[in-house]
Amino acid sequence: MESDGEHSPPHACGAGHRASHSLPTSAGGSVCVSCAAALLSSASAPSHHVSHVLASLSLALADPAFLAPLRAAHPRLLAVPLVEALAGAAARRDAALATQASDLAADLASAVGPPAASELVARLAHVLSSGSLVKHFHMLHCLGFLLNSIKGASAYIGDAVSLFLNLVNNLRLPSDEIRGEILFMLYKLSLLNATPWDNICDNDNVDLSAVGKSLLQLSLEVLLKTQNDAVRLNCIALLLALAKKEAFDILLLGDLSLIKSAEEEESTQTDDVPPNASIIVLFADAVKGSLLSTNLEVQTGTLDLIFHFLSSDANICVVLQTLVDENVADYVFEVLRLSGNNDPLVISSIQVLSLLATSEEMFKEKLVIGFSTLLPVLHYVTEIPFHPVQSQVLRLVWICIANCSGILSLSQEEQIACTLTLILRRNDSGELGMCSETFALVCSILIEIMRSPSAHDIQKLPSLIEEASKHAISSTLPHAYDSAFLVPHSLRLLKEALIFCLEGNTDKISVKKDLEDSVIEICGTYLLHWLETAVVDGNDDETLGEILQIFHIILSSTCHNKQLKFAEMLASSSWFSLSFGFMGLFPTDHVKSVVYLITSSIVDKILGCKYGETIRDAYVYLPSDPTELVYLLGQCSSEDFNLASCQCAILVILYACSFYNERLVADSQLLSSVEQYILLNGGKFPYEIAGSVMLTLLVHLYAFVRGISFGCTIQHSPEAERTLFHVMACKEWDLLFIRVHPIALKWLFQKVELLEPLSFQMLNFCRTFCEDRTVVLLNSSQLVDIKMVAELVFSGETSLSSLLVSLLNQIIKDGTEDEVFSVVNVIAEILVISPCSSSHFTSSGVIDAVGSIYCSPYSSRIKTVCSLLIFNILYSASAMTVYWEDEWLALTMKQARCSLSLRRP
Fold first, then answer.
1. CA distance 687 to 759
2. How many CB atoms lie within 10 A of CB 499?
């Protein structure tokens, strides 16, 4: 450097170099770049001279007065000398000088730009492309820096493959520092697509398999041996970058057909052990140390590396088995345990464990050991909406519970149930969203907990399941169109909750009563509403099937009162019309069988006497359309048992509909079909079918249809009526055997032609009433009681009062004392319930009938009831009632004499 004043023009240096090579500085001096280049290139130049030149150039590069002409006229002049200075410093093992030269090279590339940078990269790459790199730490560092900081720097490398191969070969060097720089260089070359795998067409003579194997093995050995986290980071980064290029797939994934001849010499193992097994074991051993590092970046990178290898599309069974056998899962669980809920670490750990879990049998034991580590993680990820690994954590929990439920303590199961219930609550309220997979897994885990042997011993579980099932249903079923995937999961949870309620001993079932009531309530609100909209919206048959299964469990397995109440609720919600809508919307055998099964269960409860059995026996042959149903009823079945069975089931369905004001077809069409059935079949039922039961049903259905058509323009068939009346008179049937519709009962007692068969039925009623005071139909919600009879008498629209008086007169002549007592008792009870009915009985001749009792040798209990009867008539009597004073006088005298005789000793 020379100083000739601030404004002196450039002139030749003392060495005779051209004046243009002397570049000015802001201080007024100049620097001859040719002299500097010569000194830097001289192998014999003293180190302190070289150091001085490097320092001077470093200062000059920061001077705009020097930099501008250098960039304009001599951009490449200093690049080669700097590389030679680096090489000289390496030969002298002068680390300080090498560092100084390396720093200047980086500054030159940055200040001058592509011309200098390209030359530096090309020269450095050429030097590093051959021979040992044991002395070239700083040259490696310099080239690595340039590749990292200069855009497109790899384009300046003359022979990238040779450089790459020499770098790989020098990974055998023992120095951690050098291997770290080599690994960084290899990593940058991979990112810049300057590897043999990026230019396969130009590298026909390169054995990629051998290169890959060598690189992988050497890199893993470095990772295994080093304790330096910086080296680990470079190694992991390189392996990840190359793995994304599928450079190691052949080696790690055990596809023997792809392994080239270079490996064949090593494949002396049996067919069961792939020749690359040692590399996989090395990989497993190498990642353990990094997993235990205290550097979070190293741990996360190692987990990402494992995840990438395991998530390959190729067959990874060998890798999975080896990693599990080599206890890598234990290390990952340990990382997770110590993570302190560090989110990147949690995410990476769970991703790896999820892939290891795909090999369930091998991984099961590891999962059991590490399961306690998952619980705090489960709580952590469920607190964050849409956490990236929320579903993976849940899947791991599900795998453990489903396969090893016995290893969980009661407190752990309760803790999990509590956490999952909280998720569903917050999701339902809109506070915390979740993806579909998460929702499905939450439901599945709760189901597995309920199925576990110890579930009935978890005190809080019923209340947790009650809340969880409510939130699951309310967040999905009302929005079934948007939650089609989720609805089946929420329904399965509800079904398992119901089954859970019904299992266990009596004590355990009783404590789950609230849960059972909650499930039934949900069915009556959300599920029934869905059924009502399903016919309109055309929702999926899978959801329909799940709902109907739940209904069937309630109707078949809960206590009698709940069955009855639920059946009434369904029937009163237009069930019969809905059921045919389902079968029309989903014309499959499965839907048909389930719908008829539910219908039969409802009929069992609302009609009693297991009338639903007729539907269960014939559902295969029953049509899915109500019009076809009534058409089938009007056919002759005397020679066809299957048709006769169908007709019995149809009669049951039609009669059950009558109680809930449902019309499957028009009234005229219904009457026509019933009449056609009577005319063609009469009261003939196949011997396999209980004739008295079906005749009773037929009588009530016909009476109901005639009753609702009374006063309308609907024409009826007198012949069908006569036929049925004849059958009623000749064959056995029972008025009390089935739930009675008031309209049907009223119509029957309006028919004078039926006086004789109805008298017999009323005598049976009187007998039963005196025994039980109330007639209760088994398995039915309908009570046939004295109140119904009293209302019919009071209405005055039937001949029931005359029938009872006529019956009383008849049994006074021909019956037993018990029969007389039962009839008198019923009449007396009717007057207690409805005193105003006394006029109907007096006009029917009850006074004469009672008078004849006093003249007969009956016991005091009958005469006592008669006295009560007389008192009730007189108590409510109108003027017209006692108009016939002679009759009352005679009756009073008889009653008085009877009373006196009873008082005599």
1. 27
2. 16
| pLDDT value of residue 268 | 44
DSSP-derived 3-state class of residue 29: strand
Longest dimension (CA), the chain: 169
Q: What are the phi and psi torsion angles at 775 (to 5°)?
A: -100, 115
Enumerate the domain spans of the chain: 597-750, 758-772+786-905
- Rounded to whole angstroms, the Cα distance separating 849 from 832 reads 19
Query: Collapsing DSSP states into helix, strand and coil, what is residue 775?
Result: strand
Q: What is the pLDDT of residues 669-699, one digit of tens each?
A: 999 999 999 999 876 766 555 667 888 889 9
Closest CA to 831 of 803, 800, 869, 878: 869
Residue spans of beta strands (DSSP E) within 74-220? none
Q: Does residue 602 contact residue 571 with C-beta atoms inside 8 Å?
A: yes
Beta bridge partners of 775: 784
Q: How far is CA 368 from the centre of its chain?
A: 24
Whether residue 222 contacts residue 171, with contact meaning beta carbons closer than 8 Å, is answered with yes
For residue 92, what are the contacts with CB-CB under 8 A and spacing of at least 6? 47
Would you say the C-alpha torsion 377, 379, 385, 391 has a positive or negative sign?
Answer: positive
The per-residue pLDDT for 780 is 43
Are the C-beta atoms of residues 13 and 4 closer than 8 Å to each other?
Answer: no
pLDDT tens digits for range 146-177: 998 888 888 888 888 899 999 999 999 988 99
Long-range contacts formed by 503-506: CB under 8 A, 24+ apart: 503/456, 504/456
Number of residues assigned to the chain: 905
User: CA-to-CA distance for 775 and 647, rounded, in angstroms?
Assistant: 29
Residues of the chain with pLDDT under 50: 1-7, 254-275, 775-781, 904-905
Contact of 470 with 422, CB cutoff 8 Å:
no
Return phi, psi of residue 221, to 5°: -65, -40
Q: What would the two tokens of residue 723 be?
A: 């036929």
What share of the chain in percent tops pLDDT 70?
A: 87
Contact 633/651 with Cβ under 8 angstroms?
yes
pLDDT at 251: 59
Opening angle at CA 136, ends 135 and 142, nearest 5: 155
Q: What is the distance between the alpha carbons of residues 470 and 591, in angstroms, rounded to a whole number?
A: 26
So what's the pLDDT on residue 270? 40
Quickly count: other Cβ atoms within 10 Å of residue 52's Cβ.
Answer: 14
- Residues whose CB falls within 8 Å of the CB of residue 290, separated by 6 or more in sequence, listed in order: 223, 232, 236, 298, 299, 301, 302
CA–CA distance, 846 with 870 (Å, rounded to integer)? 10
Per-residue CA distances from 475 to 220, 293, 426, 442, 498 (Å): 50, 44, 10, 13, 19
Partner residues linked to 680 by β-bridges: none
Contacts of 75 (CB under 8 A, 6+ apart): 112, 113, 115, 116
Asked if 632 and 641 touch (Cβ cutoff 8 Å), the reply is: no
Q: Is 4 exposed, middle or buried (0-12, 13-18, 19+ CB in 10 A)?
A: middle
Dist. CA 602–CA 780, nearest whole Å: 10
Of the candidates 473, 421, 474, the residue with the CA atom closest to the CA atom of residue 446: 421
